[in-house]
Specification:
two-stranded antiparallel ribbon, alpha/beta, globular, 213 residues, single chain
Length: 213
């Protein structure tokens, strides 16, 4: 998911201040504060990336948040003071999601409303993902094959099977496998980050790690 990707970037050395600067440059009408906390899940310690909007905590779920359409988000990004490379990556990732939603719902791409991804926390996730990759000067990204769980998920339009239709559409042409786990393991936001940045999917080849997040 987007927040997990951003948390990993923080562990790799991106300052939280860089994320905060990027969000301030969007001039969002909402007041957004970013913070992190150390947490333990499944016996492993890690970093959690938290987005707070106007005193409210966002928990990256599929509830009803303020929605924006693609034209509004594109305008917001184009008018921002983001570095061109960061802006263009964020635009490209959102465009992937908009195209997927437009196809799924049979509407023009300009009018696609982002119920989940239009929420401020997901705008933050995609912009910070782009800002973090840019900050680290990463030129090549590889990843294992994306996995998803089984069962169903509740979205703004109703109950859908996993992988969620938008996730499946965004990952079209990319290998994907399913695990017998009753949870969403790859979100549309996470899928868009992978589809945009990753040039090669598969098993790790021989390498030496300098940093691990």
């Amino acid at each position: 998911s987007g927040d997990m990707f951003c948390a990993a970037l923080l562990d790799l050395g991106v300052p939280l201040g860089r994320f905060q600067e990027s969000i301030l440059s969007l001039s969002l009408p909402e007041k957004v504060h970013l913070k992190t906390e150390k947490t333990v899940r499944g016996g492993l310690a890690g970093t959690r990336f938290i987005v707070e909007e106007s005193g409210h905590h966002h928990h990256h779920d599929h509830g009803h948040h303020h929605s924006r359409n693609w034209a509004e988000i594109r305008d917001l990004l184009k008018k921002s003071k983001l570095a061109p490379a960061v802006r263009d990556s964020a635009l490209a990732m959102f465009h992937r999601i908009a195209e997927a939603e437009a196809k799924l719902h049979g509407v023009p791409v300009e009018t696609v409303h982002f119920h989940e991804v239009g929420a401020v926390d997901s705008i933050v996730d995609l912009v910070c993902a782009a800002a973090g990759i840019h900050h680290l000067k990463v030129t090549e990204v590889t990843a294992s094959v994306p996995v998803d769980g089984t069962g169903t998920i509740q979205c703004a339009h109703g109950t859908f099977p996993l992988p969620a239709p938008a996730t499946a559409e965004i990952l079209r042409g990319i290998p994907i496998r399913q695990l017998d786990v009753p949870h969403e393991l790859t979100t549309p936001t996470g899928a868009a980050i992978l589809a945009h940045f990753v040039k090669k999917f598969g098993l790790l080849e021989s390498f030496s790690a300098d940093r691990i997040g």
